User: Fold this.
Amino acid sequence: MSVAPRLAPNPPPAAPLIDSMISVDHKAIARRLLAFALLFFLAGGVMALLMRTELAEPGLQIVSTQTYNALFTMHGSTMIYLVITPLALALGLYLVPLQVGASRVAAPRVALAGLWIFVLGGLIMQAGWLTVGGPGRATWIGVAPLSEFQRTPGAGQDFWIIGVLLATLGEWLIGMCVLATALGRRAPGMTLMRMAPFTWTMVGTTLMMIFAFPVLIVLMGLLFYDRRNCCLFDGPQGPLTYQELFWFYGHPVVYVMFFPFVGAVAEVFSAFSGRRLFGYAFFVASTALLFAALSSSVWGHHLFTSGRINAKYFALTSHGIILAAGLEYFDLIGTLWRGRIRWTAALLFGVVFLVQFLIGGLSGIWVASPTLDFNANNSYVVVGHFHYTLFAGSVFGAFAAIFYWFPKWTGAFLREGLGKLQLVIMFVGTNMTFAPMFALGEDGMTRRIANYGSRGWETLNTIATVGSYIIALGILVFLVNLYVSLRRRRPAGDDPWSGPSLEWATSSPPPPHNFDVLPPVRSFAPLLDAREAVEGAPA
Amino acid sequence: MRRAWVVPAGWGAGLIVLAAVQLTLHPEAIELAMLAGSGAIVIVIGAAALVAERRRRGPRAPVEVLRWTSAGAVALAVGVCLIVLGWELGAWMVGIGAGVTALGLFGVIRETRTGRP
Assistant:
């Protein structure tokens, strides 16, 4: 047992509420980030329900076209900028220092500043609802020239731009702290190839953030300037230049919202099958290196129909992702193969994540092919595709992570029964909501319309709307589970799942300095090594 | 010994290789520049990490003193947000933001003098 570097914590805080808001403990920062992401998730979910209610029947029932435009803009913006990205980062900020055996995160003040810049950015974006003309309504990508002042006047769009800029800046700061921690604050013995799979996925994630996020930050500054002055994105090439720059951020961020949950599911599969991650080296190479690099070179497929981009190249790189994704699936399934599987809620969420993300991934091939994309572009096929990746995929991965690490964060279990009930409800709701979108898109329904007229699309839209309320019911079950589990705690102990990586070697929740002692690190699953040494039976 | 630089340097090289593939397919200048430029930036970061590693001598101090809280960092964050919000609301807000940022900076400097990091 090696002794970890220790912090000498200050005396206990005198004003706990205020002190917890300004704490530099990475775990406290991550908890705040997670809490704000969940609050924004509820807000974004309400917006989605309003949209789906409007779309249940043709015609305008509950909102005007302008309000609908604001709803889809703010729903997408909230979910992308304020929910799934920060959720992924919160997991990384909490877990990466623990998994590499560090006593703290690198540059904790930067992480704390990042948290509050993100939160204030999110609040400024939502403050657009309080302005006379309503919030931003030029789509979640703020596409120029629609987002220029003449076409979208009012302070709400300005607040949207400022909000996106600040939220992204905050996330970038946090991401860089996570990367610096993984690479620079590893415990003795923790070589690069002994880092936990989740940590590697965070490395891949944050590597993409290095340059992708600053591009969006600068672009938002330019867009704000353009609204106040003029002509940055005018002319025949202006809007395309905007989109080229936006998607240079916009596609890597899809993987920023995916990789951490793949890593989480890898940890879950390993813990609940009692085995090491199968093909660890391939997993690292495919996720952190090949997949991340390819993910940064596919942005042009969003512009296939513009005719401006190099379609052959972007079709090639977009299809290349199949290889990296296939390796990940192979590793994850291989981990379960012949394992001693425990069918917990976390594992089941992980399995459903794999299945549903596969649908998102396969429909991605559809829109990654230039010829097919000309047919699918701007249709509900695209809406179905990315909701299968980000909601049916990433959100289920996030719940796998929450059910798995909740005992570490709080020292108590979430209720397994309620978790499985939530899973079934959300599985039904998700597929009822998003599967009809492929059929609607193939039939010609375009995205971002409040009234689709009398074209025979009522039935599928009604099914999707009912499905969205079923999803909401699933989320309600989760909130009840959270309340019950925190009110009537079932103590979990330090390592309730027999986890493989270092975070399970400390108390639940961990102390401010993370570890009193560290076990020796001789592989990427040091706790499994220790258990096998005692039991004498390799897993 | 930690070889942290390998990851960004290797990954940056990967991006440049992917950018180079464009050369065989009649690239657009902006697309080539964006990807190759990003790769170059990441390689520079890797090189900086290598230099930092070489300069570091000896193990870390076994005991680090970390303050429990940092009001300075939060003030800095609020100040930056107010400055950016001032683009919309006017120079008066930029002024307030600059003041809060200065206070935050002062706080952070004071905190770092009393304990690392």
About this structure: Chain B has a mean pLDDT of 88. Chain B touches chain A through 54 residues (CB under 8 Å). Residues 6-55 of chain B form one domain.
